Amino acid sequence: MNTSISQLLINYAPLLILFIVGWFFGTRHERQHLARLQVSEKELRYIVVSSERFYRPTLATGTQGELVLGSVVIAQDYFKMVIAKVLNLFGKNLTTYETLLDRARREALVRMRIEAKIKGYNHVYGLRLEVTNINQLGSMVEAIAYGTAVTSTETT
User: Which residues contact 44 (CB under 8 A, 6 or more apart)?
Assistant: First the structure.
C-alpha cells in the first residue's frame, strides 16, 4: 500500500505542481492587469463617456464628431478555465469568466479613451460595447468599445 501511494505521488506530483504554478502566475498577471486598468481609468476620467441614446453634449465651436474605438482580445489562463468547467457542472457562478469579461470591457474602454485623448477630444457619446467569444472553449474574448468623440464645453 505504501508503494502505491508513493507511485501515485510520483505520477501526479508534476501535474499538481504545474497546476499550482500556473494558477499562481495567472492570478498574479490578472491582478497586475487590473491595477494597470485602475491607474489608466483614473488618468483618463476627465474624458466623459455617455451611453445614453439621445444625449448630445454642448459642442465647442467648430468641432465635429469622429468615431473612436478601442478593441482588445483577452485570453483566460487554462487553469482557471478548468475550474470554470468544474463549477459549470454544478451550476455555480462562473466568476473566472466574469472577471475575464470585466477586464476585456474595461480595457476596451481605456483604449477608446486613449484614442479620444490622442485626437484631442474630451467627450465620447453614443458608447456601444460588443463582446464576443473567439474560440469555442470561451477562454478568449474580444471586446470592442466605440462611440462619437467631440470637444465639449461642458465641465465635469
Answer: 110, 113, 114, 117
* Residue 111 CA: distances (Å) to CA of 51, 61, 101: 16, 26, 15
Put residue 138 in one of left, alpha, beta given phi > 0 → left and psi -120 to 50 → alpha.
Answer: left
Which residue in the block uniquely carries the three cell numbers 485623448?
117
Count the Cβ atoms, other than its own, within 10 Å of residue 129: 16
Could you tell me the three cell numbers for 42? 483614473
Instruction: Please give the distance of CA 56 from its chain centroid, rounded to a whole number.
Output: 27
Model confidence over 38-95: pLDDT tens digits? 999 999 999 989 888 777 778 888 888 899 999 999 887 777 777 777 777 777 777 7
| Cα 83 from Cα 53, distance rounded (Å) | 39
Q: Which pTM does this prediction carry?
A: 0.81
